[in-house]
Design brief:
The chain is α/β, with parallel strands linked by helices. The protein folds into 2 domains: about 60 residues, K homology (KH) domain (GMP Synthetase, Chain A, domain 3, 2-Layer Sandwich); about 60 residues, 2-Layer Sandwich (GMP Synthetase, Chain A, domain 3). The protein has 6 helices and 6 strands, in the order αββααβαββααβ. Strands 1-2-3 form a 3-stranded mixed β-sheet, with helices on both faces.
Length: about 130
């Protein structure tokens, strides 16, 4: 992924406001910031003050996700607050959930699933996602 001028500016702005280290930033329907392991509390701020401040200043919806080197934990962080059971078998993560939850994960025209795969595959290229 190539970082353009706007993405770099967004990362710098986020780090200046939150004082948390950003690994990467994705601008899909929601501006998603991936922060280093252990930085999620600093990034969100007390009572979510940093998220609210950033959303107001950037005029965008903001999502902050904590990176984890374990693909299952990272995927759980990525889909939060949706609850689904995940299984890692060989090089495949499989979701097990009811139809409503699967519908939330897939989204209209599979847009949520495409965004999820884009972010996940940026860090774990060799693991496939099955819903």
């Amino acid at each position: 992924m190539n970082l353009d001028k706007d993405t770099i500016q967004n990362i710098n702005f986020f780090e200046k406001i939150t004082r948390a280290k950003v690994k990467c930033c994705f601008n899909n329907n929601i501006m998603t910031f991936i922060v280093d392991f252990g930085e999620i509390g600093k990034a969100i701020g007390k009572n979510g003050v940093n998220v609210k401040k950033l959303a107001n200043l950037m005029k965008l919806r903001i999502k902050i996700v904590e990176f984890n080197p374990n693909p299952l934990i990272f995927m759980k962080n990525l889909i939060y607050p949706v609850k689904a059971e995940l299984k890692l078998e060989e090089n495949t993560i499989e979701f097990q959930a009811d139809t409503k939850t699967k519908g939330l994960l897939i989204g209209r025209n599979q847009q949520n699933l495409k965004d999820l795969k884009k972010i996940f595959n940026y860090y774990f290229r060799d693991i496939e996602i099955k819903i």
